[in-house]
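U., I forgot to send this yesterday:
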Amino acid sequence: MEIAHGRIMGSGFVAVIDIGSNSVRLVVYEQLGRAPAPVFNEKVLCELGRGIAANGRMAEDSVEKALESLRRFRALMNHMGVVQCFAVATAASREAENGPAFLAEAESILGTQVTVLSGKEEAQTAAMGVMAGMIDPDGVIGDLGGGSLELVDLSAGKARSGITLPLGGIRLQEQSGEDLEKAKRICTRHLDGQPVLERMKGRPFYLVGGTWRSLAKLHMEQNDYPLRVTHHYRMDPKDALAFCKEIIQEELSRVDSIYAVSKPRRALLPYGAMALAELIRRGEPSELIVSIYGVREGHLYSMMDQREREKDPLLVACNDLAVLRSRAPQHAFELIDWTDQLLPELRLDETPEEQRLRRAACLVADIGWRAHQDYRGEQSLNIIANAAFAGIDHPGRAYLALANYFRHEGLVDAQLSPRIRELASERLETRARVLGAAFRVAYVMTASMPGILLSTRIVRDGETLCLVLPPELEELNGSVLQKRLRQMAKVRGLQSIVRVD
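Result:
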C-alpha cells in the first residue's frame, strides 16, 4: 500500500472498539500518541442494554446487530492495516446473563481479547479520558451510558474512587416504563446520600457520554453559539437546569432546534436530561464542561508511558498540523522564538497559558497557504476553530483562529471580524491582533522560509518600534515590509522604523 503523505508516520494505525450498552463503535487512530487523530470513526446503535432491566438478558436482535457490526469492523481493520486493536465492553456485557456467550463470540470475530470494565474501572477509565483531553481538570466526572452512570472525583491529576449507578439512559427509560416522574424518583433513590456529590459542590462537573453530548449540541444550537465543537463547551448550571426542564416537559418534536440531534438519539434525551438535572440540584457544581474524550481515549491514555502522557496535547496536535500543512515547519519554530523576544518589546505581558496558546498559534500560522489568497483567512480560521484539538477551551480556540485570520485578512475592523471573536475576552482578542500583525511582518520578510527570521530582531526605542536587519539582509527592506511594520506598531500606539545594523 502506498504511504499517504498527508499523515504522520508513527507506530501505525491503532483501533479501539467500544462495546457499550447503547452503541458499538470503532475508532481507528493515526497512531498511539498524546494527540491521537481519528482516521476512521463508525458507530452503530445496537442497544445491547435494552431488555436487561426486565429479564436480565440482552435482546437477541441487539446481539446479532452488534456481532454483525463487529464483523464489519474486523474487515475494515484488516483492510486498513491496523497494527493494534483494543476492545472494551461496559455495563450491558458485564451484567447480562448472556454476556459471556456474546463476548466469546465477539473475541472470536475480532481475534483479540475484549476487556470487560467493572463499574469502578469504567469510572476510572472515563476519568483518564478527561485527563487526556483537558489540561489539569479538577472536579467530578459523570459518564452517562446506556446502562449505567459512572461518577468519579478527579483532583490533583488523580482519579479518586468512583461509583457506578444503574441510571444509564436505556435502563432509566425501561425501569420507569417511560414515565418521567417515575424516572425522577429512581434518580432520587440512587443519588441521595452519595458522597461524591458532596465533592461536586462549587467545582466543575465534566459531562461524558453520547446523550449528554447530544444535549450540549442542542443547547448550542438553541443559543446560536458561534462554534459547533462540543469538546470543552461550558454551561452555567442554572441555565442548564432550565434547559433540562424544557427537554423533560416538552414534546420532543416541539423542542426548538431538535433537528440538531440525530433521530436515533432523541428518545433518550429526556432521561439524560432528568439524570443531569438531579445531579445539578444535588451536586451544585460551579459549571458544566462537556468532554468528547471518555472511555476510548482513556483506555488509550492508560496504554501510554508517563513521558508520553506529560506532553502537551495541543502543542503536539499543532506541531502535527505544521508538519502536514505548512510550507516549512521549521519556520513555525523560528516564529515561536522570534515572538518570544518580541512581546516584551511591545510591553505585552503573558500568563503561562497565554504563552502556551501563542506558541500553538505560531505552529499553525501557515496551514492555509494552499487556499486562494482571498479565502485563506476564512479557511484557516474554520480549520483551526473546528480542529479536533485537545487541551484547549473555546476562548483559546478563538484566540488561535483569530490570530491566523488577522495574519491573512489584515487588522480588520472589529465589526467585520468573524463571530468567533465573541468567545474571546478583550485581552485575548488584543493579543490575537498583535500576534496576527507580527505574523504579517514575519511572513513578508521571510517568504515563509526558515533561516532569516532569527537573524532579525525588533527593539523598542521610546515610542518607536525598530526592526533591525543585519547588513547582509538589507535588501529585504521595502515598502511592503515597512507598511506591515507600521501596522504592527500602530496596534500598540507606536511609530516604526526599519534599521540596518
